[in-house]
Amino acid sequence: MASRQGGSGDAEPLGPGSTERRTASTTAAASRQADARHRSPPESPACRRARAGRTDRSADYRSVDPPHGGEAAARTPEDPPVRDPSLYALTDHFRERLEQPGRYVSTRTVSDAIREGQLRWNSTDGWRFALVEGGVRFVVVVSDTETDSPVVVTGWTEVADREAALEAPRWDGVDVDTIAVRAALSESAATPIPDRIRPRTVTRPFEVGEHRLETEPGEPFVRCTECGCRFRSKEGITSRRCRQRSPGR
Predict the structure, then answer these.
(1) The total number of structural domains that make up the chain
(2) Per-residue pLDDT for 115 more than 80?
(3) Compositional bias (Basic and acidic residues) spans (predicted)?
(4) How confident is the model at residue 64 (pLDDT cuts 50, 70, 90)?
(5) Is 152 inside any structural domain?
(6) Most buried one in 49, 144, 179, 216, CB count within 10 A?
């Protein structure tokens, strides 16, 4: 199941760092507190949205309609998608991304990208809308040939202009580095990227697979705050289950 954006798709944007639902157990939190390493203090989702003057309304959705041979079924993949956000539904895959820390995607940015973003065809993913705001590029992949309504398949962020992103009030340094590390890991999942991780500071964990990841300047890896495992590639992250660190370790 997936859901349609309500109205014109004007759900409020997320604050810096996306909607962060911190799910670490009290045991893991105590273990991390015992670790003498310095980290930025955690900030609740409500505080982060309030600080940015934003809320998030992601409940105004409906289910994706299965194909019934209507107008969408007659379209070909080469036909440009429509630019009306109110016609799009969200897949479960994309909805899950809205919930993950460090994704930095929201229903509002999806709507803005569909209305105003550059539209390009990619042989792998199909049609993409891309919109740059505050030095960050929001990429939204859509499809409208396999269902009776257009669908947002997935989306992600990239650092388009680091200096502009660091100057934008929407982001802080940790946000920008988180976007950069996540994008670098995704570019080639099997390729270790220690040199691209080493200069970054990520003190608010972001999620990939089952792991909550962070890194500090000089470290050539990302570290899971739950199980303590270290990774240099996305494939390494997604191929290993997170076994939460036991007390005293």
Answers:
(1) 1
(2) yes
(3) 53-65
(4) low
(5) yes
(6) 179
Residue 165, in any domain of the structure: yes
Q: What is the model's pTM?
A: 0.70
Burial environment of residue 113 by CB neighbours within 10 A (0 to 12, 13 to 18, 19 or more): buried
DSSP 137-199: EEEEEEE-SSSSS-EEEEEEEEES-HHHHHHSTT--HHHHHHHHHHHHHHHSTTS--HHHHTT
SS3 state of residue 71 = helix
Q: What is the DSSP string of 13-58?
A: PP-TT--------HHHHHHHHHS----PPP--HHHHHHHTT-----
- More confident of the two residues 245 and 49: 245
Angstrom distance (rounded) from CA 180 to CA 157: 9
- Pairing type for strands 151-159 and 89-90 reads parallel
Task: Specify whether the CB–CB gap between 206 and 213 falls below 8 A.
Answer: yes
> Is 2 a domain residue?
no
Residue 247 falls within a domain, yes or no? no
